[in-house]
Amino acid sequence: MDNEQDFNDEEMIDGVVEEVFANDKRRFNKEGERVKVNVKDNETVEKVKSPEVVKLEKELTDERTRRESAEAKLVGVQAKFDEIKTQMERETAEMRQRLMKTLEDRAKQGQFNFLTTLLPVLDNLNLAISASEKDSSFEHLLEGVKGTARSFEQALMNVGVEAVPSIGAEFNPELHEAIDMVETKADDDGRITAEYSRGYKFGDKLLRPARVQVGKALAQTAGE
């Protein structure tokens, strides 16, 4: 008897639950979405999200928007950084080139100034040689002075100094300075006949011109 009563009570409870469940048209699925269900065929006719889901989705959307904005800013900053880096590298290379050229020019100018101070010494040695050649008693002195002059000229050559060709060469106003002129035959017209002081070049610069005598052909008469 008691068992039958318990069984009837369970059926009554199940019936009440089914009735309540059937009459409750608002339910939530496993995704948290609230749905309205047709009582007869259990077909979904409308889905309504719960406030918690709506809030979470909004927070997710806002977070995605902030992330995309931050990524866009990062791309812009990186592009600006690359532009500035390229500009600085170009300016650094140009500055390095200017500095190297300045240092090279300064070094060459120092060498140039130093060499010009040595040339008078060589002139004096050459004058001593010329004087000794006229007096045989100075033979030993002559050899010594010649050796000194040769050594000095070799030292100049070692640092890039070159003598300017003169005697027998065509007069060149860019390399020679005409001190005087002498009458010569036609073949020697415009040629250098004597050298008073030697000229020298250093690279593409003229340290000083050669001081020379230039031949001038005699004017021919009308009958010749």
Overview of the structural elements:
The relative contact order is 0.07. Strand 7 and strand 8 (205-208) form a beta hairpin. The protein has a 3-stranded antiparallel sheet with strand order 1-2-3. It has a 3-stranded antiparallel sheet with strand order 4-7-8. The chain has a 3-stranded mixed sheet with strand order 5-9-6, with no helix packed on it. It has helices at residues 2-23, 51-133, 139-158; strands at 26-28, 33-37, 44-49, 161-163, 176-184, 192-197, 200-202, 205-208, 210-217. Among the domains are: 2-49, no CATH class; 116-217, Head domain of nucleotide exchange factor GrpE (Nucleotide Exchange Factor Grpe, Chain A, domain 2). It is an alpha+beta fold and 224 residues long. The protein starts with a helix and ends in a 7-residue tail after the last strand. Helix 2 packs antiparallel against helix 3 (139-158).
Question: How would the blueprint of this fold be written?
Answer:
Elements: H1 2-23, E1 26-28, E2 33-37, E3 44-49, H2 51-133, H3 139-158, E4 161-163, E5 176-184, E6 192-197, E7 200-202, E8 205-208, E9 210-217
Parallel strand pairs: 5-9
Antiparallel strand pairs: 1-2, 2-3, 4-7, 6-9, 7-8
Summary keywords:
single chain, 224 residues, alpha+beta, Nucleotide Exchange Factor Grpe, Chain A, domain 2, 3-stranded antiparallel β-sheet, 3 helices, rod-shaped
